[in-house]
Structure prediction request, 253 residues.
Amino acid sequence: MPIVMKKAREVGLQRDRVEDTIRLVPRDSKSVLEIGAQDCYVSRLLTCVAESVTALDLEIPTIDHDRIIPVAGDVTSLAFEDNTFDVVFCTEVLQHIPPTLLQTACDEISRVSSRFILIGVPYKQDLRVGRTKCGTCGKRNPPWAHLSAFDKPRLMGLFGKLELIQESFVGQTRERTNFLSTLLMDMAGNPNGTYHQDERCVHCGAKHVRPGERTLLQKALTRAAFVIRTMQLRFVTPRPIWINVLFQKNQTG
Prediction:
């Protein structure tokens, strides 16, 4: 899996997203905390713009690099003193945090930063597009286990004590749906969801499995949902896929 992830981030829009976040990191940074480091692919890139990088994930990352310190931790309860890092770098993480813990996570990110916070998240994602039905518990799941959608005002609210220094947008998408298409897809069992994702069911933790053969009614409902959504897309304006923002901590932050 790490090799697959690495390849995906070296091409196309994912490459553009990663490059954009690295570009926003202030070049006089000495210490960076990367939250959600996974295989440390981005941590290695961060060593080009910072003297040392602390790579944090729920399980301690496997990395052998003299300027990368791997640690295990949870963004909702960071085991660091206040103002420990010049930059806290957190991309593709906040959308996975349960909404009840989201503000706590953002407060922790702000607390351990002494200067800057860099946040990257999907922009105005329609969480109804691509959702799945768990084959174990039967509950609906958002695509990629994304539990929240974000735009600039929401990020400003979550980091309200910080000053917005720079914002950037990457990619374009017209992915959007509507109430009727969503209802029909739910009735059909959401057969076209993101069942190939690594993320498990957000309700019971089971691995997603693509549904088996559908009934004629389910096929008809799926087709109707697809037709209605296709008609809607003719009137949809493209929007960015991701938003990256750089905040600065003020004297009272």
Notes: Residues 2-249 form a domain with the Rossmann fold fold (CATH 3.40.50.150). The beta strands are 29-35, 50-57, 68-72, 85-91, 113-122, 132-133, 140-141, 162-170, 242-249. The radius of gyration is 20 Å. Confidence is low (pLDDT under 50) at residues 1-7.
